[in-house]
Amino acid sequence: MLNMAEGLARLGALAANPVVATLATAFADVGFELAVVGGPVRDALLGRPTHDLDFTTNARPDDILRIVTPISSTQWDIGRAFGTIGARVQGEQVEITSYRADSYDGTTRKPVVEFGDSIEGDLLRRDFTVNAMALRIPEIKLIDPTGGVEDLIAGVLRTPIDPAVSFGDDPLRMLRAARFSSQLEFEIADDTRTAIEQLRQTLSIVSPERVQGELIRLMQTDDPVRGLRVLVDTGLIEQFLPEVSALRLEVDEHHHHKDVYEHSLTVVRQAIDLEKTRNPGAEPDVSLRIAALLHDIGKPRTRKLEPGGGVTFHHHDVVGSRMARKRLQALRFDGATTDAVADLIELHLRFFGYAEGAWTDSAVRRYVRDAGAQIDRLHILVRADVTTRNKRKAARLAAAYDDIERRIAELREQEELDSIRPELDGNRIQEVLGIPPGREVGEAYRFLLELRLDEGVIGTDAAEQRLREWWAARGR
């Protein structure tokens, strides 16, 4: 719970930050107002780490640039049209924005910007009351016109004005509600949640890039499941990631299968726990977390009700991989993330064949080869995918994966397992067979690669002999 005495002390410490103090003096010296605004104030009151410093001022962009240039090492004005100037002050990146009011015209995907004259008016245009507080500096005065402190104490997300108007100004705020619900572990006020349900379709005017950015921020939180439930329960996720809500399969009284939606959320949580255990202190692995969320999205499309009450989802891994790739491309994710998620989904069932019976070394090599750079993520995803309540089955699967990781480690010590390639390159193949570059060199290379996967390292002399035998058997 928020302790106001401690919170106010932390605000004083925020104002004393050398970067904050330097900017406060520079703006005050030329007669302009300046305040730390939004997240840094909220986090200071809550005792959470403060990462980015955002400021607001009655100065216009040209004035801001003129003021910060002498006290900063770098300046950028890419956000000038929106009233924002960035700078690096004493090694720290800051953004300073003129008082403003954003709104959408209801048809375009970009906000219309109007500059304002008062900090109170600026705060009213912000997304939630807990983000609509400012610390005026250098006098150290908390400005809270919408009751943000009270909502921090109550743990509630509420818009500063009528939520229908606020979400109409920027529909992305509905997605932010889900993100902050996870990030802060706050409940969403009833009228705010109702407005999301009623206005969810207006998210369509927001660019895919902005939606992607908020989805990433949600998945980077310690517990994105809370926010994901908000998105699904309000129907907002239907506007950009409908495959998730589709996981809530109808249950036929004569056919039984586990709840795929709840299973997927559990896999997300378990993947995050394993990620933190295996890579302590690392940045959140968004690709892994999205793969965990989407790993079963092929199930609704492949579900088949069998006689006798069984349910099958044949090839849902391949189908789900294609679906995920298409969706992430629509959301403008970069190629590396899209490839990683699609590959993980396609590979996530491969291990369960190992659990039924130990693989040969050749099968383990192929598993590593196919996983490529995703092998460590795949280890986590496959382990997280075990959500059975049957303790004996869970223990058996865990032991099987312990075994495959052990075998991979042993083979890595014996061979260059992570960069499996034939023992002869294309040039040597041409020399041994006496052939020019062309299709036949590629066929020979593939033969040697299969040989390497099947038998491991056999040495160049043996590889050359086997290559000659293969070539002779072709009738050359």
Mean pLDDT over all positions: 88
Report the CATH C-level class of the largest domain.
Answer: Mainly Alpha
Number of separate structural domains: 4
CATH fold-level name of the largest domain: Hypothetical protein af1432
Number of helices: 24
User: Architecture of the largest domain in CATH?
Assistant: Orthogonal Bundle
Distance between the termini: 81 Å
Helical fraction equals 40-55%
Protein name: CCA tRNA nucleotidyltransferase
Cofactor: Mg(2+)
Pfam families: HD (PF01966), PolyA_pol (PF01743), PolyA_pol_RNAbd (PF12627)
Keywords: ATP-binding, Magnesium, Metal-binding, Nucleotide-binding, Nucleotidyltransferase, RNA repair, RNA-binding, Transferase, tRNA processing
Structure description:
The chain is α+β, with helices and mostly antiparallel strands and 476 residues long. Residues 252-256 have low confidence and may be disordered. The chain is elongated. Strands 3-4-5-2-1-8-9 form a seven-stranded mixed beta sheet. It has a two-stranded antiparallel sheet with strand order 6-7. The protein has a two-stranded parallel ribbon with strand order 10-11. The longest helix is centred in the last third of the chain and has 24 residues, at 391-414. The chain is built from 24 helices and 13 strands. Helices cover 55% and strands 10% of the residues. It folds into four domains: 1-154, Beta Polymerase, domain 2, CATH 3.30.460.10; 162-240, Hydrophobic Seed Protein; 248-419, Hypothetical protein af1432, CATH 1.10.3210; 426-473, no CATH class. It has helices at residues 4-16, 18-29, 39-46, 61-68, 119-124, 148-154, 163-169, 172-184, 190-199, 208-219, 224-234, 242-245, 260-278, 286-294, 299-302, 316-330, 335-347, 352-356, 361-371, 375-384, 391-414, 426-433, 439-455, 460-473; strands spanning 34-37, 53-57, 74-76, 84-89, 92-98, 100-103, 112-115, 134-137, 141-143, 156-157, 187-188, 304-305, 311-312. Keywords: ATP-binding, Magnesium, Metal-binding, Nucleotide-binding, Nucleotidyltransferase, RNA repair, RNA-binding, Transferase, tRNA processing. Residues 260-381 form the HD domain. Pfam families: HD, PolyA_pol, PolyA_pol_RNAbd. This is CCA tRNA nucleotidyltransferase. Its cofactor is Mg(2+).
